[in-house]
């Protein structure tokens, strides 16, 4: 990926943004009125860290938010400096790829899941690899990493080896492992840090208590291809994308079906909620990102700037921008769009 595009509201590419009617409920789901689903956060978990700096972090976040709101995006991004963090090449001189990347809750550490079986934790202030931490133990490439939302030093990883590993990067040791007996392809922490959901390629979702990794709490089998899973900010709803292009909402912890959004005409790969839980972005195999109002479940916009299936989505901390990317062969663009 080597080209980046920013399209402001009403900009030159605004013709690619269309509006569509409300999603048609799936069979068995009641017609409007749409059920009221609280996706916003009503719990603010306490954050633990070996180096607490939450007050300074909040001040920095507030300053950054004011800066982004007062300076037009093209000028804002143009004024930022880049810093490169370079991986070692593997023993056979093949290229090491990053399969997953995640910031911790305080924004002072970055975790990367790598194809060479490692999890690497970087300090953004020290880009030299000698200052990073290697977490070893997986027998295959690491496809997903996620930080504990209540502890800035703990994280979880999984991959094709069927093992979920829980880490405290300070000790460079694995705190616990759980076997799902399947190829792990998705990973999500409950916002209270009490449960980790792991999706496998056989369309099963396994739920694990990080405090007791010796056993799986329960397993749910979906009736269709399941790609990415996330929890709502409130923790009351599990959202998942399917090969049919749908977003399925299930109540947590009962896992009863709540609602189905027909988001795309072909497979839906990834999804992301904005920080307020009022907007849901869904990326699909049709190279389109659909943006949904989670109150009425109406598609507000469709973003059609991608050239390849959308595999990854991220929304900025203030909900102002969305970034979409693809890992398909030949994919060369990352799009940054104003929401």
TrEMBL record:
Superkingdom assignment: Eukaryota
Keywords: Repeat, WD repeat
Renumbered residue ranges of the record's region Disordered: 1-68
GO biological process terms, semicolon-separated: mRNA export from nucleus
GO cellular component terms given for this protein: THO complex part of transcription export complex
WD repeat extents: 135-177, 261-293
PROSITE patterns registered for this protein in UniProt: WD_REPEATS_2 (PS50082), WD_REPEATS_REGION (PS50294)
InterPro entries: Tex1/THOC3, WD40/YVTN_repeat-like_dom_sf, WD40_repeat_dom_sf, WD40_rpt
Annotated signal sequence range: none
Similarity field: Belongs to the THOC3 family.
Protein name: WD40 repeat-like protein
Natural source organism: Morchella conica CCBAS932
């Amino acid at each position: 990926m080597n080209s980046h595009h920013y399209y402001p509201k009403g900009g030159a590419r605004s013709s690619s943004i269309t509006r569509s009617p409300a999603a048609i409920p799936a069979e068995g789901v009641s017609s409007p009125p749409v059920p009221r689903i609280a996706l916003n956060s009503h719990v603010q978990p306490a954050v633990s860290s070996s180096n607490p700096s939450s007050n300074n972090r909040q001040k920095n976040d507030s300053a950054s938010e004011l800066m982004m709101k007062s300076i037009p995006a093209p000028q804002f991004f143009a004024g930022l400096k880049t810093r490169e963090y370079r991986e070692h090449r593997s023993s056979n001189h093949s290229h090491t790829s990053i399969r997953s990347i995640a910031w911790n809750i305080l924004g002072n550490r970055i975790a990367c899941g790598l194809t060479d079986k490692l999890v690497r934790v970087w300090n953004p202030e020290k880009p030299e690899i000698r200052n990073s931490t290697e977490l070893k133990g997986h027998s295959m490439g690491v496809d997903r990493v996620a930080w504990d939302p209540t502890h800035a030093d703990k994280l979880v990883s999984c991959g094709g080896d069927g093992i979920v590993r829980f880490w405290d990067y300070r000790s460079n040791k694995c705190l616990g492992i759980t076997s799902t007996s399947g190829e792990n392809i998705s990973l999500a922490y409950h916002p209270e840090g009490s449960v980790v959901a792991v999706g496998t390629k056989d369309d099963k979702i396994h739920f694990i208590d990080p405090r007791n990794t010796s056993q799986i709490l329960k397993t749910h089998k979906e009736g269709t291809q399941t790609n990415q899973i996330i929890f709502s900010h409130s923790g009351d709803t599990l959202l998942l994308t399917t090969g049919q292009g749908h977003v399925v909402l299930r109540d947590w912890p009962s896992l009863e079906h709540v609602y189905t959004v027909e988001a795309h005409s072909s497979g839906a790969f990834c999804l992301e909620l904005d920080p307020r839980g009022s907007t849901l972005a869904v990326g699909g195999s049709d190279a389109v990102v659909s943006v949904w109002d989670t109150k009425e479940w109406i598609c507000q916009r469709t973003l059609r700037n991608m050239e390849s299936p959308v595999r990854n989505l991220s929304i900025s901390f203030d909900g102002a921008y969305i970034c979409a990317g693809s890992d398909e062969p030949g994919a060369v663009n990352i799009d940054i769009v104003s929401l």
